[in-house]
Give the backbone structure.
Amino acid sequence: MFAHVADPLAYAESLLQHFASVARAADGAAVAGLCARAAAQLSGCELSQLYLLDATHKRLELTGEWFQGQVQPVHAKGVVVDYTGEQLLQFSLCQNRVVSIDDLNESLHDTSFLPGEGGPWRSLLCVPLLNAQQAVEGLLLAASREPIELSGHALSLGALGAFVWGQIRLRQQGVQTVMPAGLLASAGGLIGSSTAMRQTCHLINKVVHSAYTVLLLGETGTGKEVVARAIHDGGPRHAQPFIVQNCAAFPADLLESELFGYRKGAFTGADRDRIGLFDSADGGTLLLDEIGDMPLSLQAKLLRVLQEGEIRALGSNDTHKIDVRIIAATHRDLTVLVEQGLFREDLYYRLAQFPITLPALRQREGDILDLARHFAAQACAFLQRKPVLWSECALSQLENYTFPGNVRELKGLVERAVLLCDGDELYAEHFSLPRDTRPEPANLNLRERMEQVERGLLLDCLHKNAGNQTRAAHELGVARRTLLYRLERLNISLDDIKRRAS
C-alpha cells in the first residue's frame, strides 16, 4: 500500500497518528483542520483542502485548509465553490475518479479554487470521499508548487478522508466517536515512532481485545494512565466507564471504602449507603494507579476480586458479582516489594498476566521533538493563539536533555515556554531546563572522573532496585560486602539514593 514512499513503516505510523488525532478532536471544525494538516504532511504538499458537499449536493463547502504551514480559519472565509464551474473538481466528484496531475498547467486547467499567493501550482491530487454506501460526499485535495508524483497517496488519503467525513457527521449528531481498533497504535495520545514506542504499541494491540489483567510498569511520568485509557478506548468496553484510583492517595481504611463501597452504619459517619469504584466501573475498566503502595490488608481483598469477580461492601454480609477489567500501574519494582514482604506474591502474579514496561523518554530516540510539537500545538489551542514556530536552538536543547521526569516533565516545560513566548517562535531561553551543578569533567583528574562514573552507576542501580543492596550487588556481579565497601568509600548514603529517585 505504501510502496510509493521511501520508508513505508514510518509512513504507516504517521498515518495511524493522524487517524488517532482526528478521532480525539473535539468538534467538526477541529476534525476538518486535522484532516487538512494530515493530507499535506503525508503527501509533502504545501496546500491541502477538504471540501464537503452541502445539503443540496450542488455546491462544495471548503471545510478545512492547510496552507502557509498552518490550518487556515476557513470558517471566517465562508468559501463555497460551485463545482459545476470547476472542471477538475467536477470530474473528480461526478465521475468518482482520482485526479492526479504531476505538471499542472494553469493555461489548460482552471485552478481558481487554489490560493493565488506564492506563485503557480505545479502538482495536484484530488481524491473523492466516499460514505459507507460508496456515494461521493466530498473531495480531499493536495497541491504543490513542485512537479511531484502524488498518485501514490490517493489510497491512504481516500481512507483518511472517508474516516473524517464519518467523524464530522457523528459530531453533528452528538454521537461519541470511537477509535477503530486497528488504529490503537497511536490512540489516546501515544505519540512517537521510535523503536521503543513501536514495541510498546505492538504489546498494547496484542492485549486490547483480551480479558487479561494488564500491569503497566515504568518510571514516573512515562504515560501509564494514557496507555491504560488507550487500552480501554480501543477495546470492547470503550462505551463503559473508565475510572482511575490512585492507591497512594488514601490511607488503608479510606481506600477500602472507596473501592468496595459501604452500607449505612458500617462505621462512624456512614449515614447512607455508598457504592464503590468497583461497582461504578462495572462493565468498564478500573485503573489502580500506584498499586505498589496498596496496603497488605487490602491486597488480599483485591486478590479475591481478581479471582472470583465478586465484592462485598463494608458493613454488608452479601457478596455480588461484578464485571470489571483491572489495569494496574506502578513505578516501583514489585518483585523487590515481594522479597521485602510488602507485596503479596500471589497478587503480583495475578496482576502481571500481561506486563508492559513503558520506555523512559530518554530511551525513545526521536520522539522528544514530536511530543514537544504536539504539546505546543495543544497549548496554543488552549490559549487561543496562533501556532508557534520552533528555533533550532530550542529543539537542540530539548533533544540533548535527559528528562528525568519523562513525558510529564516535557509537557510542563513546553506549556510554560508557550506561555512565556510573546512572539511567534520558541527559543532556548523560553525553557528553564535544570543545569548540571556537578564539576565539569575538564576540571577532574582521572581518578576523580572514574569515581564520578562509578558513583553514578551505583546510585542508578540502587535506585532501580529500590535501595535493595543484595539485588543491586547481584545485578552488578559483585559480592554484597564489596558493594558496601564501595558505597562507604564513595560516601554514598541513603539520602543520596532518595535524592536520585526524586
Observations:
- The radius of gyration is 28 Å.
- The longest strand covers residues 136-144.
- The chain has a mean pLDDT of 83.
- Residues 338 and 344 are 6 Å apart (CA to CA).
